[in-house]
Amino acid sequence: MLRHFQMFADYNRWANERVYEACATLSGEDYRADMGAFFGSAERTLNHLLAADRIWLKRFTGEGEAPTSLDAVLFEDFAELRAAREAEDRRIIDWLNGLQEAELSRIISYTPISTPTKVELRLGPILAHVFNHQTHHRGQVHTILTSLGKPSIAIDLVYFVLADGKRWQ
């Protein structure tokens, strides 16, 4: 399972790069336009993804900055957000590369931001959630992009494995 999660971390980096490349073609107005996604705009959705990853990594490692709100806008400047995303993706990959298989069974205790009830789960299922969460919201950004007339981007896992992710075959 550890190798599986390491592949997802690498895929996550790859897919994020493509989404950010596509968002870089948006005007500032379109980037910030409320398009009806859960967090409204591409800007707010991308910020949410970074915020959520920082929250999770803080829970896993005890290190790093973690916002106290799921809708925090960490960076209004696109270039700064993109650089922070790249750094966070590297941080996730490096952290997973330092794990041992047995650690996936470790119990993580945390209190969700949205509900003040303590939760205890094994790390493995939480990691599955983290990567599924990324895919879910990247899909919303993809919909925003196509709604604004931008071309569809190929960010499916199989495209990653066939291109940049051949080591995972």
> What's the count of strands?
2
State the secondary-structure class.
Answer: mainly alpha
User: What value does the average pLDDT take?
Assistant: 97
How many angstroms separate the termini? 15 Å
Which of globular, elongated, flat, extended, rod-shaped describes the shape?
globular
Characterize the biggest β-sheet.
2 strands, antiparallel
The value of Rg in angstroms is 16 Å
Order of helices and strands: HHHHEEHH
Q: What is the percentage of strand-forming residues?
A: under 5%
Number of helices: 6
In order across it, which strands form the biggest sheet? Answer: 1-2
Kindly state the percentage of residues in helix.
55-70%
Instruction: Pick out the low-confidence regions.
Output: none
In short, what is this structure?
This protein has 169 residues and is mainly alpha-helical.
Describe the protein's topology:
Elements: H1 2-23, H2 28-32, H3 42-61, H4 78-97, E1 107-110, E2 119-122, H5 123-147, H6 157-162
Antiparallel strand pairs: 1-2
Helix pairs in contact: 1-4, 1-5, 3-4, 3-5
Q: What attributes does this structure have?
A:
single chain, 169 residues, mainly alpha, two-stranded antiparallel ribbon, 6 helices, 2 strands
Structural overview:
Strands 1-2 form a two-stranded antiparallel ribbon. It is mainly α and 169 residues long. Helix 1 runs parallel beside helix 5 (123-147). The chain is built from six helices and two strands.
